[in-house]
C-alpha cells in the first residue's frame, strides 16, 4: 500500500476559539494513494478546516500531516495538490479554455506535465463551451470548468470541498460520473467533502464520518461497490444498505458530538 495521505494525532485550534473545543482533535487518517475518500459530518465538525490543512493553507497545533511523504506546504509548492471549492473561482475576463489553461501557463517553469485544456473540457462534456466566458455559463457548467482546471496540472492529491452542493440533483449526478471518469484516468487521490450520503456512497472507496465539537473521526466505512460505478450498480439493493449504514453512523456521530453552543436544549 503506497502511503498517500497520513494524518496522525492532528489537533487544530482556531485563534480565539474556546480552548476546550478545538476545531479538530486527535484526527488519525490513512488514505492510500489513488483512493477516493469522502468526508461527511455535521456542519462545524471541521471538514473544511481539515481540507485547508491538507492543502497547506493553514497550519495545525499538534500531530503530523504528510502527503506522499511531504508536508502539505511542500506538496503545494510542487503543485501536487489541486483544490476545488464550493464556488468556482474563475477569471471572468478569460474564456473557459483560457481559464483551464491558466494553471499550466502560470506554472510553466515548474516542469509539471500539463493536460491540454480541450481534452479536459471534453472529459467534462464542455468542449462546445471552450470559447465562452464564465458569465455565459450556468452554475453546473462553471463547476465543470473548475473540475477540469483542477486536473490540469495532474495533481497527485485533489481536495474538493462540497463542490457540487449548490447544484440541482440531475446536474450533480452528471458531474459525479464525469469526476469518476477523470479520477480513474488520472489516478489521483481524492478527498471529497459532501453533505450528501448518496453522493459519498456513489463516489467513494471509503467514507470518513466525523463528529463535531470537537471535530473527530467517528468512523471509517468501506464502500465495497464494484467499479466503474455505472447506473445499474448505484440502483442496486447493496447501494441502499450502504446508504443506510452511513446514515446510521451519522446519527451516532451527531449524538456523540457536544450540543452546539447556539442550540438551547428543549
Ligand atoms: N478562521 C476561523 N476562525 C475561527 N474559527 C473558525 C475558523 N474557521 C472555522 N472555524 C470554526 O471551526 C469549526 C470547524 O469549521 P469548519 O472547518 O468550517 O467546519 P465544516 O466545514 O465541517 O462545516 C467551526 O466551529 C467553525 O466555527
Ligand atoms: Mg465546510
Summarize the structure.
By secondary structure, the protein is of the alpha/beta class. The protein has helices at 47-54, 72-77, 96-106, 117-123, 139-151, 169-186, 197-203, 237-256; strands spanning 3-12, 24-32, 36-40, 62-67, 81-84, 157-161, 189-193, 206-211, 216-222. It is 34% helix and 21% strand.
Report on the architecture of this protein.
Keywords: ATP-binding, Nucleotide-binding, Transport. Pfam families: ABC_tran. Residues 1-22 are annotated as: Disordered. The chain has 266 residues and is an alpha/beta fold. It has a single domain, classed as P-loop containing nucleotide triphosphate hydrolases (Rossmann fold, 3-Layer(aba) Sandwich), CATH 3.40.50.300. The protein is 34% helix and 21% strand. The chain has helices at 47-54, 72-77, 96-106, 117-123, 139-151, 169-186, 197-203, 237-256, and strands spanning 3-12, 24-32, 36-40, 62-67, 81-84, 157-161, 189-193, 206-211, 216-222. The strands form two sheets. It has a six-stranded mixed β-sheet, sandwiched between helices. A three-stranded antiparallel β-sheet has the order 2-1-4, with helices on one face. Strand 8 (206-211) and strand 9 (216-222) form a beta hairpin. Helix 3 packs across helix 4 (117-123), helix 3 packs parallel to helix 5 (139-151) and helix 7 packs across helix 8. The radius of gyration is 19 Å and the shape is globular. Adenosine-5'-diphosphate binds next to helix 1. Adenosine-5'-diphosphate (ADP) is lined by residues 14, 16-17, 23, 43-49, 215.
Amino acid at each position: 500500500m503506497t502511503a498517500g495521505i497520513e494524518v496522525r494525532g492532528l489537533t487544530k485550534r482556531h485563534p480565539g476559539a474556546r480552548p476546550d473545543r478545538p476545531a479538530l482533535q486527535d484526527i488519525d487518517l490513512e488514505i492510500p494513494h489513488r483512493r477516493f475518500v469522502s468526508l461527511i459530518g455535521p456542519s462545524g465538525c471541521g471538514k473544511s478546516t481539515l481540507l485547508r490543512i491538507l492543502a497547506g493553507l493553514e497550519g495545525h497545533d499538534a500531530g503530523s500531516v504528510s502527503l506522499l511523504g511531504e508536508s502539505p506546504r511542500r506538496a503545494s509548492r510542487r503543485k501536487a495538490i489541486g483544490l476545488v471549492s464550493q464556488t468556482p473561482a474563475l477569471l471572468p475576463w478569460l474564456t473557459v479554455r483560457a481559464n483551464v489553461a491558466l494553471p499550466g501557463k502560470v506554472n510553466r517553469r515548474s516542469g509539471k506535465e500539463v493536460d491540454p485544456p480541450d481534452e479536459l473540457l471534453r472529459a467534462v462534456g464542455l468542449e462546445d463551451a471552450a470559447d465562452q466566458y464564465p458569465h455565459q455559463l450556468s452554475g453546473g457548467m462553471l463547476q465543470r470548468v473548475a473540475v477540469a482546471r483542477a486536473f490540469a496540472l495532474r495533481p497527485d492529491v485533489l481536495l474538493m470541498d462540497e463542490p457540487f452542493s449548490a447544484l440541482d440533483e440531475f446536474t450533480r449526478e452528471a458531474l459525479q460520473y464525469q469526476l469518476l471518469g477523470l479520477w480513474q484516468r488520472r489516478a489521483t487521490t481524492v478527498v471529497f467533502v459532501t453533505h450528501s450520503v448518496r453522493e459519498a456512497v456513489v463516489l467513494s472507496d471509503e467514507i470518513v464520518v466525523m463528529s463535531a465539537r470537537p471535530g473527530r473521526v467517528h468512523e471509517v466505512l468501506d464502500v465495497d461497490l464494484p467499479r466503474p460505478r455505472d447506473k445499474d450498480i448505484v440502483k442496486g439493493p447493496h447501494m441502499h444498505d450502504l446508504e443506510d449504514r452511513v446514515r446510521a453512523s451519522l446519527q451516532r456521530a451527531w449524538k456523540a458530538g457536544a450540543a452546539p453552543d447556539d442550540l438551547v436544549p428543549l
